[in-house]
Amino acid sequence: MKRFSNTVSISIHNDIPDIVPYQVFLQIVFRLPEANAKNLVVYRQPSDNGDASYVIQGVRMNSGLHNPVLHSNMLVEMGITTNDDENVLDFIDHYRPDFSIRYYTCESFIFTLINNAFQLSENLDHLIKLRLVVTDLHNFLRFKMGGLLRNEYTTNGPFYKAELLSLDKLHLLKQGIGKYLTFHSFLSTTINKTRALDFINKTEYDQKKQAIVMYVIEMNSQNDTQQLLQPFGNVTVLSCTAHEREILFSIGQVFRIRSIVQNEASQIWTVYLQVLHANETEHLNNLTDYYLSKIVGTETFYNGIQARVNFEPLTITTFVTIGNYYSSVLARNYDKAEFYYQKFLDEELESPDDFDFQNQPGFYYGRVYRLYYSAHSYINLQLARIRCEQKTYVEAAEYNQKAQEACLKISENAGQQTLLAQIYNNLAQIFWGYTQQYDQATRHYLHAIQMDRNNVETFINIGLTQTAAKEYWYALNSFSIALSMIQTRNETDYLSYGLIKRNIGLIYEKSEQGLQALLSYWEAERIYNKSLPSNHEFRQIIRDDIKRVTKIVTRVHDDL
Asked: DSSP readout, 298-315?
C-alpha cells in the first residue's frame, strides 16, 4: 500500500504570508469547471440595481454525474492515450465523483498520476490538468466526510505517516522546527503507529542517503481553538483496504513543526506536527480571500454568461483566472499568464460568428456576443498591463487599443464604463512611461475618472505619475483621496495601502523630511510583512528604503 509510505512533496515556510500563494492557487483550481456547460447550474437572481445577475455553480458533487469525454480529455492532457489498457478504459467508462476515494485508495494509475504530478510542488500545470479528480477528492472530503473539524467520521488522533526521506530533506525539516509545513498532495495516514512503519519498503532503504521519518499529526482534543486548513476524513469504509483505518487529508494541508526527535535504537526520526491555532487559520484565510478577490475580480467569463462572483459553494473560475494569478503580485510569471489567457481564447470562448441559430435560442446570441467582446477587451487590457510592467510601451499601446476596440462593441452599461475607465487608466500610464509628457497623461487620467469616479487604482496611479513628475503636493493629494476611498469602504486593501505609504515616504525623502519618510516606510513595511511572502521583492525594496533613509537621518543627527 504505497500511499501510506509514498514520499509526499512538502515545503517549509517562515510565516503565514509565505503559505498564501499555493493556497490561492488551490482555491482557483477547486473552482475550475471541466469546460462543459452541462456540468453547471445557472441561477438567475435580481441584483441591487434591479437588473438580473447570474450565479454559476458547479454540480460535480452530483454522485451520478458521468461524462466519459471529460475523463478521456483529462488523460489526454496528462499524455495518456486511450488505448486498450483495461484500467484506463475502466476509468473512462465508469468513473464518477463519488468513486474518487476508491480510485485513489486502490492505488490505480490515477493514484500514480497524482503522486508523480505533485513530486514537484512548483509544477502547478499538472494540478490544472488533473483538476477533475483532484477537485472530486477534495470536495468529497469537504462536503461528505467531515470537512475541517473533528466529528463522527474522524478521531482525535494522533495520525501517523511514515516514509523514506533523503538526508537533505531531513536537514531542511530540522531547520524548520517552529515553522509551517505544507503538504503538496493528498496525505494518507493511519491511527496505528506500528502499521505505519510496516508500510515502509525496507529493501529500498539506503542508510547512507535516506532516513526513516514518521510524521505524527497531533490533534488536541481539549482545545477547540485548533482548526485544519483543508478538509480531512475517515475513508476506511470506502477504501480498497477496508481493514486499514485510513484518515485522508486533502491537498495543501498546513501544520506547524513542533519538534523532531530520533529514536537511538531504531534510528527513526519522528516529526511532530501541530494543527494551526484559530488566529493563524483566520489570518491565512483572510489573506487567501483578499488575494482571491483581487485575482478573480467581480466577474468571471464562462459559456456566454458574465456571472457575478459568489465564492460559495463552487462558483467557477476559468483559465482567465489562472492567467490573472500568474500576472498578479504573488507570481509575476508573465509567460504563464499569457499562455492561459490565450488558452481561454482558443479553447473556451464561443465566437458569435459560430453561433448555431438552429439549435440554440435566439436570446442566447446576445450573451455570446457580449461575452466574446468583453473577454477580448479584458484579456487585451491585462496583456497591455504586462507589457507596461515590462516597459515595452509600444506593444502595451497596441494591446490597449485592441482592448478599447473590443470594449466599444459592447452596448453601454456599467460594466462597459468600468472597463473603459481601466483602459484610459492604462493608457495614461503607457503615455507617461513612453513620452514623459505629464499633461497628456493627465488628460487620459481625467477620462478614466469621468468613467469611474470610485476607482482607487486610478487615483493611486495619478499619484505615482505626479511623484515621478516631481509634482509632490498634487501627488500627496491624490494619495490622500485614495486612502479616504479605502477607509470609506471599510476594506483591508493591503497592496494599495502599502503602495501608497511607500510612495508617500518617497515624497518625504525627496523633500528632505527624513523622519516623516521613515514613519511612512515603517508603516509600509508593517503592511508588507503582514501580507506578502518573506522573499517578495517589495519587502526587500522597503527594507532598502528604510536602511537608506536611516543612514541619512543618522548622519544629519551626528552633524548636529
From this structure: SEEEETTEEEE---TTTB
